[in-house]
Structures are given as structure tokens and as C-alpha cells.
Amino acid sequence: MGMEQLGLRELKKRQTRDNISRHATRLFMERGFDNVTIAEIAAAAQVSKMTVTNYFPRKEDLAWELNERFADMPANAVRARRPGEGALAAVRAAYLTQVAERDPMAGFAGPQFARMVADSPVLASRLRQFHDYREKSLAQALAEETGTAADDLVPRLVAAQLNTVLRLLFDETVRLVLEGGEQDAVAERITRDAETAFAALEPSFGDYAVRT
Predict the structure, then answer these.
(1) Whether 44 and 100 share a structural domain
(2) Is the separation of the CB atoms in 71 and 133 below 8 Å?
(3) Is residue 208 very low, low, confident or very high in pLDDT (cuts 50, 70, 90)?
(4) Which domain holds residue 43?
(5) Which of 33, 58, 83 is the last residue of a domain?
(6) What per-residue confidence (pLDDT) applies to 2?
(7) Of 32, 58, 84, at which residue does a domain stop?
(8) Which residues form the DNA-binding region (predicted)?
(9) How far is the C-alpha of 73 from the C-alpha of 115, rounded, in Å?
(10) Residue 198: partners with Cβ closer than 8 Å, 6 or more residues away
(11) pLDDT tens-digit profile of 108-133?
(12) Total-model pTM
């Protein structure tokens, strides 16, 4: 198969995935996550149920299509830190960039999506799994970057503290969004909270994993 054919195949897959995701999101917003079936999503997207499950093995995957970007953000920030920059500074900078961009991965997905997650035990459980995975992913990155064993206490401790801050800030953002806060006002408030929270960790972890 030529490169052009491969490119067309990948484009077709991307278009099919986007089509399914778009219709699923619309149905979830209109009726609530738990009230929509895979069959209804397939019918709306004009594909088979098998096609839907091939792209999204679990229904909750349709609501969390960007879960990898959410979960791997702090680990990727640590791996991409600049010379002279430590893990805390790298994660703080990456998070504040998300807030400045009103990134949905930082909680700025809008009140409809936030309410959909809050009203669905399945989605709320999946979100907790993402937070837990993010901590483990960050601990692994810290261990790799500092040359320590994967089960060493220090990278796990630092990851737990950083992830706790990120989790609290995410929850606070969602709370403010659900209360009807305008995005710019929410971002301004969360930026102040983030600076306070990360500064509290600075004495203990500011010099940790500084890239030489």
C-alpha cells in the first residue's frame, strides 16, 4: 500500500472517530451520559455499534477522549523541563499555561460538561482513575529523570504532593464553573490559588529534579 493510500486511510479513521465523538457529546449534553446507549450513538453517527466500540471500547471513553493529554501533562512537563528548571517549576508553568489558555483539561470544559460528569457516577469514577493514573505517571517520570528506582519513596512523594495540588485546583475550577463563574474570572481566581499552592511546596521540593 502506497503512502498516499495510508494517508487517506488514517484520514478516514480520524473523520470517523471525530464523527462518533461529536454525536456522542451532543447526546450526552442533551440527555445525560447515563441515559444514552451505544446503539443510539451509532444511529446518530450512522455507523454500526461495532464501529463505535472499535474506536471507543467503553462508553465513558467517548466522554474522555482526551484522557491521555490530561493524565500525562505533569509527566510530560517534567521530561521537557529546561536546564536549571526543577520538577515543581516545570509542572507549575505547564499548569498555568493551561489556565491561561482556558484548557478543558484544567477544568474549563464548560458548565454542561461539568454537570454531566458530576451527575454520572461512571464518569466521576473514571475521573478519579485519571487523577490516580496521573500521579503514577508523574512518579515514573520523576524516577526516570532522577535515576532512582521506580519504587523509591521520594519520586512517589513528590508526585503525590504535586498531583494533590493539581487535583485540588481542578476540583475548584469545576466548582466555580458549575456555580456560573465566567471563565476569565475563574481563571484569575485559580491562577492566584495555584501560585499560593505551588509556593507552599517550594521550600520542600523547589530544588528537586533540577535539570543540569
Answers:
(1) no
(2) yes
(3) very high
(4) 3-58
(5) 58
(6) 53
(7) 58
(8) 37-56
(9) 24
(10) 88, 91, 92, 165
(11) 888 888 888 888 888 888 889 889 99
(12) 0.80
